[in-house]
C-alpha cells in the first residue's frame, strides 16, 4: 500500500466554505473513484488555514488509474472548476508515502 498525503493552504477565511463544498460535492465523487479515504484533517496548531487529505492505494499504478478515471468524470470537472473559482487555495503539496516495513499498511 502507498499513501497519498495532500496538504492545501488556504487564504484566511476560506477554509470553511471549501470544506462545505468538498464534503457535499467533491468527496462523494472522489470516494466513488479513489476508494480508500483515510481522512481529512484541519490544522488547529501550527500553520493555520491548512488541511491534509490522505488516500490509500495499492500501488502507484492503482493511484494513476483511479485518478485518471476521476479526471475524466464530468462531475469532477464541474466540481474542480467551481473550486478554482473560489480562489481559496494558495498552495498545494502532494507526497506519496511508502510504509515502513513494520507499519500496519506494509
TrEMBL record:
Signal peptide: none annotated. It comes from the Bacteria. Residues 4-104 form the NIPSNAP domain. Pfam families: NIPSNAP. PANTHER family: NIPSNAP-RELATED (PTHR21017), PROTEIN NIPSNAP (PTHR21017:SF17). Belongs to the NipSnap family. This is NIPSNAP family protein. The lineage of its organism: Bacteria, Pseudomonadati, Pseudomonadota, Alphaproteobacteria, Hyphomicrobiales.
